[in-house]
# Entry
Amino acid sequence: MLMLPTLAGDRRVSLVAAADPRREARDRFAHEFGGRAYDTVEALCADPDVEVVYIATPHALHERHAMIAAAAGKHILVEKPMALDTRACRSMIDQARAAGVTLVVGHSHSFDAPYRRARALIVSGQFGAVRMITAINYTDFLYRPRRPEELDSEHGGGVVLNQAAHHVDVVRRLAGTPVASVRAAVGDWDPGRPAQGAYTAFLQFTGGAVASLVYSGYGRFDTDELCGWVGESGQPKEPGDYGVARARLAGAATPQDETALKEARSYGAQAGLSPAPPHRFHHHFGFLVVSCERGELRPVPDGVMVYGNEARWFDALEPPTVPRQEVVDELYDGVVHGRSPIHSGEWGMATVEVCLAMIRSAQEGREIALRDGAASPP
Ligand SMILES: NC(=O)c1ccc[n+]([C@@H]2O[C@H](COP(=O)([O-])OP(=O)(O)OC[C@H]3O[C@@H](n4cnc5c(N)ncnc54)[C@H](O)[C@@H]3O)[C@@H](O)[C@H]2O)c1
# Structure
């Protein structure tokens, strides 16, 4: 649902086919895009008109679906987290390489224009080396309707693999060197909804920078209050809508009710969920400040606030024409021009490695050193 405005709105993409076990999703796709709708990924990948497969199935299926796509010679865009462990990530990378296809992992929020602009400002050298990154995100993640396994950390549920996959991705891109070590604590505070619901993590990068990540999905304070009441997808938010996620969920008495509530928001379940026009703002992942030797940068949904030694100014971005278009830029460059993507399989795997180290650090109560540092940034 989140990528549909991107894929339907970008003229470089033609939606020719799709696969989903749900009949209503297939019917809706055939009706809306006039494309072929299959009930298996195997059948989709056997379609000769398909060049690229966007894999947006539950995490545990990413590896299998990527294997099927690579074996059929299709290029791959796979959602975050890339997979549930580094073994699966590695085999996806190896299969894509053997098949000679491009593999991009995303969308993840380091694709977003404000972080890219901040990264460009860092690379310009104007502010000196990155020393410290503070990244804070408070959301209602835990109270959005979920299938049972989405709350089960054994199956990649909870906020670490789901949300730190964005947080870690953003700070890795801004720090610009591999992660050397991780210390984290993970919170599971609501007995009525046992799951990883919050984390605090301290990351040290090989280049000397550090990052602190704070995330809570407990649906009370909302960092969008610090982001001009602009939501993660660039949508304006109504400050008066306090507690809506919890209130909506309170109507679901059983896991089956909750799954039904989730499916009611899935593609094809109801009319009116098709590509929305883009918002004035870019996507983002909460409040973040990068402290460099000679300045501070704060990406916001319409640009970057820059704090120098003598002056403060705003580096404005044009509003997006197609949301998340940066994902198609990278994919297109890989598929059409053969350029190596930034958000490659190695990149996605390194992020998964840091997320898993966060969980281990919390379980073992100690700092975890990453073997070679998580993969070097491009
Ligand atoms: N980048 C982001 O901002 C973002 C946001 C939300 C979700 N995601 C990622 O997208 C992925 C999907 O998440 P979701 O919440 O939409 O999941 P979901 O449970 O809604 O499933 C997504 C779709 O996959 C279909 N599906 C299930 N099994 C399938 C199969 N065997 N073959 C083909 N299709 C199948 C479902 O019917 C559904 O249409 C996850 O990896 C999640 O982390 C990313």
In short: The mean pLDDT is 94. The CA atoms of residues 63 and 88 lie 6 Å apart.
